[in-house]
Each structure stands twice: as structure tokens, then as C-alpha cells.
Design goal:
The complex is a heterodimer. By secondary structure, chain A is α/β, with parallel strands linked by helices. Chain A has a domain of 252 residues: Amidase signature (AS) domain (Amidase signature (AS) enzymes, Alpha-Beta Complex), CATH 3.90.1300.10. Helices cover 37% and strands 11% of the residues of chain A. In chain A, a hairpin with a 5-residue loop joins strand 10 and strand 11. Chain B is mainly alpha-helical. The chains are: A alpha/beta, B mainly alpha.
Chain lengths: 487, 97
């Protein structure tokens, strides 16, 4: 009954080291699972099984030669906004359908150098704009826990793939919550690293001051492993921090949280939090206190400004970044007589509704005469949000809250109401605006058996604290062991 | 604050987006609702608060000026919708009136 496709990275790595498993057998199990479930889940946009089996055979040859690498022979899925040399990268958009990058994103190169096997590219909301993966131009992805529910977004394909055993782990990108929210809705661990910790080179840009690559994994140990591979300074990205890669050996791997000061950010009454999600959060606070942590309430008074600020800043940056999609050098080109017509028709026909909405919003916010009232005001709100965190972290080491106010919602429920969809991100935006590392991990299930996510936030470059607290919590709770039941 | 259809058309022109009449009606309604929501920021006291453009402590980033390899022409043109004589081909840029 159990398949190697359901192993964690560290479990598989142990079996590979002991020669109780080969990379080819592991990769075959993952491909077999994809063939069995992906007609329903639809996590992948592009599959590369032949290349994956070749990478697995190479990994086995290296293993036989005594080579050890952190991800040798481990199948990892990639969100389809990460550039992959020779493999289509569509960003879930008609506009980039068939585009084949001539280079690898730095994080992809790092995975390859670490020996990873890459089975394919996963579905996403078009250009990572969305919270349900329903904004993909190709098809929606479904939540493996219940196929009538969304997997979250925008990294919904990556999250669904890992939850369904179609990869052992995945990379996603998080601009306003796009790794953490799907991790929460699919029962996974998802990390948004400190801004600048992961290279953005080769990540197709959405909002440059916010975009970060992050891992989606089945447990905290795997998240640490993947972070240690993909983080680190990159001269190809001028916003890359000159900091050493994340060092998982420096994390205190213990179930004892004595002496750790954890701030609880109270859940307001207005946020539309599902009652059983609220109960799971209260229980998580008790669990952490039981592990010896000193719990105290912290106040982040400007969090309510995060949503309006984000939906001005991110679209404004997107309106500049997505200007490159003009039908000249790559992607879709509409029929046109003049250059102007070529631009407007290519973009009008090539982009989907949500992307167009955000480009319009961003263009509006940056327009002469409106800049101070919208964009500058949002940037000032961003400063206030950062200052809230600075004040809170003078008292505590980690802050806990919820990742999403609700569990996985039904497909179609929010997609026609953009503002309601934006509210799905309400708890994940402050960290993104402040550039802070944050992690989501499972903290229970609702009445329908759908996963609930707990969110931890730490000061810049303190991912180690997130992993320490998350690991201790994970050791004390059974949530991460559960897998979706396949019918 | 509601956006007029004329404003939607102006913004679409600035964003180089050809919209259908249906899209103009839909976006007028949806963007008005979103702008109404983000208008809550106006109540925030931001007197003497500096704006945050980036959270990074970095300023101008320089690296060693070392020659490297560049993308070969055939690879650069590989994804072009239309290419000719080693160049990207476009419709006429200057049109006679």
C-alpha cells in the first residue's frame, strides 16, 4: 500500500543511503502516482518523465560512485514561473504558452547541482496572481484532500503535487502568501524566506520588491533541507542579500521550547475566521505553552492596512514588470497592422481577466496626479507595518498567527468576486510587505477533514527560529503524518 | 470612488491593453469596488512617515567587471513569434498617414 512517492525527503534520503531504495525506483513511483491521480488533481502543466528518469539514473550512478549530495535522486516539482532551460515555462498564461527559456533560474540550477530529479512544472494562477489556482489560463488544480475544493494559490499546483504524492517536495513563489496559503490549504509546510535570501534570477517577475521563492514540503525537516539548498547570495540578482545560505545544522532541533518567547497576534473578530480554524489556533497556542514557550500577546496595529497597501504596491510593480510581454521577442503575438495594435491586441488577448485587472489597477495607482494618494500612501503604510514588527520583535522571538482565515474553499466560490478572493491573503500580506521570513505548518483539521495552517513569523534572517518552533510543535502533534485518502 | 467607463478606457490605453466592451463594463464595476476598498488607506495617519520602496538595506550593488559569454543569436531568437535575417520582425513602426 505504501509507495516511496509518499516518503519525506529525509526518509527517502536515508533509504537511498542504505541502498534500500534507488533513485530510479523512487522516480518511477512518483511518475506512476502522477499517471494515477493527475487526471483528477491536475497539478502539473508540463511533465518531463524521460528527463526525470535520466536524472534518476545519473543519481544512482553517482551514488554507486560514493557521491553524496543533499537532494541526490529526490523528485522535486517546480512552479511554472521558474525558468527551466529547454523546458516550457508558461506562468499559467496564454501569453507565454510554448515559451522555452534559454537558461535555468538560480534556484533551479541549485536543485540540479544538489542532485534533484525534476519531474515537471506545476500549475499556478496566471503570473502568480491569485489565491486559488483558478486563474490559470489552462485549467484549475484541485485539492487532493477534497477534489471539489481549491488547493489555494498561487502555488496551488506545487502544493497539490506534494500533497498527492506527485513529488516529494516542490518550489513555489510567495509574493503575498502564494507559498504559505496553499501549504495551509493542502496540509503542508511552506516557507517564505527573508526577502533577498533566495535569488529571484529566473523567477518570472510579478512584484519585484515582494517576490520570494520558497519550499513546500511534507514536514519541517524537509523544509530546512530544501532551504539550505536554494538560499544563498547570487550575483545575478541585485536584490540578493550578501548572506550565507540557510544552515540547518545551526537550528536547535529539540522538542523543548523553554525560554522561547512567542508572541500571539490576536485574531480580530472581523477577519471572517472559520470557527473550527479559530479553535485549532487556540489549541496550538496551548500546545506551544505546554512545550515550555513563554506566550505573550503582541500588537500589530497596522496589519489591517496590509491588504489595501498590498493591492496597490503589487499591481503597481506588476504593471511595470509585465510591460515586457509585448509580443515581440517571445510568447503569443496577435495579428496586427501596426506596432501599437500589436502591443494592445497581444496583451488584450494573451492575458487573462485577473492579470488585466491588476495591470489596470497598478497603472491607475501610478498615474500622474494619483501617485501620492495611492502608491506613496501604500508605501508609507508599508513602513508602519514594518515598524509594528520591529516593536513586537523587541519583546518576542517569534510571532504566531493563522495562515488563512478559512480552509480550502469550493472551486468557483470566489473567482467571480476579486475582492473576496483578495481577502484570502489577509494574514499573509504583512510579512510579505515587511520582507520577513514566515512559515505555515499544519495545526489541525476542520469538520470536513480539511487541513488548517498555523503561521510563524520571525525577524529578518531568523529562519532558524521558525524551524525550531515548528519542529517542536510538529513533534508534539500528529497533523503532518496524515495524508489525503485517495478514492 | 467610482471609475467611469471613459477612465477605464484611458487606463487600458496607458496599460496597452485592448479590452472588449464587456470587459470595460466588468472592470468599471470591479475596479470601482477595489478602489473603494483601498481608499481605507486614506484614513491612515502617515504624517512624516517615510515610504518603503524596498525592505533591503542594500544600495547600489556593484560586481567585478568580468567579461562573460552572451546568449547566441539563434537561442535569443528561438522564441520569437517572427524573426528574419537575425532580427525580431515587427509590423511597421512608422506608418504613412
Amino acid at each position: 500500500m505504501t509507495s516511496p512517492a509518499d516518503l519525506t525527503i529525509h526518509e527517502a534520503a536515508t533509504l537511498l543511503r542504505e541502498d534500500a531504495l534507488s533513485a530510479v525506483v523512487l522516480t518511477e513511483a512518483v511518475i506512476e502516482r502522477i499517471l494515477a491521480v493527475d487526471n483528477d488533481v491536475r497539478a502539473y502543466l508540463t511533465l518531463t518523465p524521460e528527463a526525470a528518469l535520466e536524472q534518476a539514473a545519473q543519481a544512482d550512478a553517482l551514488r554507486a560512485a560514493g557521491v553524496t549530495l543533499p537532494l541526490l535522486g529526490i523528485p522535486i516539482a517546480l512552479k511554472d514561473n521558474l525558468s527551466t532551460r529547454g523546458v516550457p515555462t508558461s506562468c499559467g498564461s496564454r501569453l507565454l504558452e510554448g515559451y522555452v527559456p534559454p537558461f535555468d533560474a538560480t534556484v533551479v540550477r541549485r536543485l540540479k547541482e544538489a542532485g534533484a530529479v525534476l519531474p515537471g512544472k506545476t500549475n499556478l494562477d496566471e503570473f502568480a496572481m491569485g489565491s486559488s489556482t483558478e486563474n490559470s489560463a489552462f485549467f484549475p488544480t484541485r485539492n487532493p484532500w477534497r477534489l471539489d475544493r481549491v488547493p489555494g494559490g498561487s502555488s496551488g499546483g506545487s502544493a497539490a503535487a506534494v500533497a498527492a504524492g506527485e513529488a516529494l517536495a516542490a518550489l513555489g513563489s510567495d509574493t503575498g502568501g502564494s507559498v504559505r496559503q496553499p501549504a495551509a490549504l493542502c496540509g503542508l509546510v511552506g516557507v517564505r524566506p527573508t526577502y533577498g535570501r533566495c535569488s529571484r534570477y529566473g523567477l518570472v517577475a510579478f512584484a519585484s520588491s515582494l517576490d520570494q521563492v520558497g519550499p513546500l514540503t511534507r514536514d519541517v525537516t524537509d523544509a530546512a533541507l530544501l532551504l539550505s539548498v536554494v538560499t544563498g547570495h547570487d550575483p545575478c540578482d541585485s536584490t540578493s542579500l550578501p548572506a550565507a545560505p540557510f544552515d540547518s545544522t545551526a537550528v536547535l532541533w529539540t522538542d523543548d521550547l523553554r525560554g522561547m518567547r512567542i508572541g500571539v497576534s490576536p485574531i480580530g473578530d472581523s477577519a471572517g475566521v472559520q470557527p473550527d480554524v479559530r479553535r485549532a489556533f487556540d489549541a496550538a497556542v496551548d500546545t506551544l505553552a505546554g512545550l515550555g514557550a513563554e506566550m505573550m500577546t503582541v500588537s500589530l496595529p497596522h496589519s489591517e492596512s496590509a491588504l489595501p497597501a498590498y493591492y496597490l504596491i503589487a499591481p503597481a510593480e506588476a504593471s511595470a514588470n509585465l510591460a515586457r510581454f509585448d509580443g515581440i521577442r517571445y510568447g503569443y503575438r496577435a495579428k496586427a497592422e501596426t506596432l501599437e495594435e500589436l502591443y494592445t491586441r497581444t496583451r488584450g488577448e494573451g492575458f487573462g481577466a485577473e492579470v488585466k485587472r491588476r495591470l489596470m489597477l497598478g497603472t491607475y495607482a501610478l498615474r500622474a496626479g494619483y501617485y501620492d494618494a495611492y502608491y506613496r500612501k501604500a508605501q508609507q503604510a508599508r513602513t508602519l507595518i514594518r515598524q509594528d514588527f520591529e516593536a513586537a520583535f523587541a519583546q518576542v522571538e517569534v510571532i504566531i498567527g493563522l495562515t488563512s482565515p478559512v480552509t480550502a474553499f469550493p472551486l468557483g466560490e470566489r473567482v467571480s468576486d476579486p475582492l473576496r478572493m483578495y481577502l484570502a491573503d489577509i494574514f499573509t500580506l504583512p510579512q510579505a510587505l515587511a520582507g520577513l521570513p514566515a512559515l505555515s505548518l499544519p495545526c489541525g483539521f476542520d469538520a470536513d477533514g480539511l487541513p488548517i495552517g498555523l503561521q510563524l513569523t520571525a525577524p529578518a534572517l531568523e529562519e532558524g527560529r521558525l524551524l525550531r518552533v515548528a519542529y517542536a510543535y510538529e513533534q508534539a502533534t500528529p497533523w503532518h503524518i496524515q495524508r489525503p485518502v485517495r478514492s | 470612488m467610482p471609475m467611469t467607463q471613459e477612465e477605464v478606457r484611458q487606463i487600458a490605453a496607458l496599460a496597452r491593453l485592448a479590452l472588449t466592451d464587456d470587459e470595460i463594463v466588468l472592470f468599471q464595476e470591479q475596479l470601482s469596488a477595489i478602489l473603494d476598498y483601498v481608499a481605507s488607506l486614506q484614513e491612515l495617519d502617515t504624517h512624516q512617515i517615510p515610504p518603503t520602496a524596498t525592505v533591503l538595506p542594500l544600495h547600489t550593488v556593484l560586481r567585478e567587471d568580468v567579461p562573460g559569454s552572451t546568449l547566441p543569436q539563434d537561442e535569443a531568437l528561438f522564441n520569437a513569434p517572427q524573426a528574419q535575417a537575425g532580427c525580431f520582425r515587427t509590423p511597421p513602426i512608422i506608418v504613412k498617414e
